[in-house]
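This is your field. Pick holes in the following sequence-structure pair:
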Amino acid sequence: MSNLQEAELSSHHEPLRRRKRSNRAFFVFVIVWIILISGGIMGAKWYSDKIQRDVAADLERQTSAQIAAMQQDYTQRMDKLEASYKEELAQLDAKVDALNELLTFTKDNADSKTDNSNKLYTQLNEVKKKLNELQKNLDVLK
């Protein structure tokens, strides 16, 4: 073959080689873009999952703190209420004892003409009813 024929053949194959190179370059470019896009998507997914876990942990901590504070407040209120009921019960108990003593004294000193003891029994029964009611309320609160 002559130089002219060789040059003609090589010039004929040169565009084919360029097309193969440009096809290969385009293919590599597409693969790189696919890798970058999928990497970005995976990174965004990982970051959103991390943020979601952090927010859930913060909410759990805040909720636990609020529940503990509410429990402490409830316990304090119940203790105050119980102390108040016990104080009232003690006062009523003292009144019942005083009425009981007065009733015993009146009963011992009563004659057949006066019957004041019935009034004292009625008052004593009313106080006992209130005492029992307060005791039931205290039992319910416990």
